[in-house]
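Lab meeting notes turned into a lecture example. A postdoc, R.K., suggested we walk through two folding results consecutively so the class can see how the record format repeats. The first protein's sequence and structure tokens come next.
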Amino acid sequence: MKAEDKPPRVGILAVQGDFAAHAALLRSLGAETVEVRTVADLEASDGLVLPGGESTTQLKFLKEEGLFDAIRKFAAAKPVFGTCAGAILLATDVRHPAQESLGLLEMTVVRNAYGRQLASDVFWGWSNLHAAPMEMVFIRAPVIEKVGPGIAVLAEYGGKPVLVEKENLLAATFHPELTSDTRVHQHFLDLLDRKSTESEAMSARR
């Protein structure tokens, strides 16, 4: 982001999970944040974070507040980042048990697949965001069993993808907001900046 540019405004779904931790981390990186509970909150955002929590509860809230369709429309042009339950909401195929989702990112996700032993454990794993290992906090985490074409795997743990990306969509099965490592959130802000630049360039050509 250029110094003269307005800082990005990142919306964070504020229903469950540690959305305040996401907000604090993003603000430390220079972004503005807004808690999203209505369609108007969403429309005032440049990007969106879907935090952890219970995906079925969040799904119910999205439908009740008209956010389900609004987020699908939003994601067609603006960046969306889902962590844990947020990653489940982004997936096209959710299992154990099966449930409806936003269906935005072509991947198969198994809910609570790591089991209770990873209730709140911290591990270190490979990522291509930096040479140093990445700290990963798993809390009843889902497992990404399969990803579709065009999806980049940015980090792995135990031979499974834990951070994936396609175009303007980013998903993590762990909780980067619960660590002091800012690399994942910075990557999301870089993605947001690129999409904003692309959008401005397209508008200038019209």
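The second example is placed directly after the first for contrast:
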Amino acid sequence: MITLFATPKDFTGIFKTIQINALRSWRQLSPEIQIIILGNSEGSGRIAAELEAEYVPDVRCSKEGTPILSDLFKQAEKRAKFPLMTFINADIILPENFLEGVFITTQRFKKFLMVGHRWDLDVQHEIDFNNQIEKSIFWEMAAGKCQKHPCTGIDYFVFNKGLWKSLPDFIIGRPGYDNWLIWNIRRRMLPVIDASEYINVIHQNHDYNFHNVTNSKDVRTGNEAKTNIKLHKEKLLNILDANYKIINSEIIKKTAPDEISRFWHRLPSVFPEFTLPIKLIRRLKFRLDR
């Protein structure tokens, strides 16, 4: 089984609706999965009690009050009952085959990071995921109306407990920390699996008027974003830089021409100390392949 952990925003306004939907969809996957809610956002304790989730209100935050990634992982791993973990944004609805995708990956790799695209959707009302009819109506609607988000939107991370011994003090919800996580695993020559073609997770659209921000520009350019920039130092990859993918219930290595081309062009950012030999090998390879 698996441990899911998240740090929600206040359960007010649209965030109350979409976060309740998300967390209820997680619990509907199985009564046995462990859910850990971190942070003292308004309403977190109530939803944790409803879902029989563990509630950890005290987490380390930035000067502006935003949770810090390293402490979230530390707190979750200390309490995790299972060897597999998922860090996930609290506005993400998980489909019923999520656990199947995780199982497929564990059959191939002992250590890994699994990520995937999200599909964006406007959701205005609460969904009862225990009601089969209501759940079916939602997924039929999502199939017709959701839009695939670009490769830079990374909203869930499935990994082995203890995969990271330590993490930089990235600030959650600010650019770069998610891209750095992928970069770090590729740097360590461990598999990164893109589950997008198998697992369709739904991101419920929302505005950026919450906590200490009022719009998306604050998220991208504010003081907390600058803190993350100093930490990641442009060591950034995205979903397209996963070196494996799930296709038809199987894990396959990325070998399409465009995937191979991207691999070689991005390799210097993973191993900058070998930039020159990588470029020479890449040039020779492409000449031989013509």
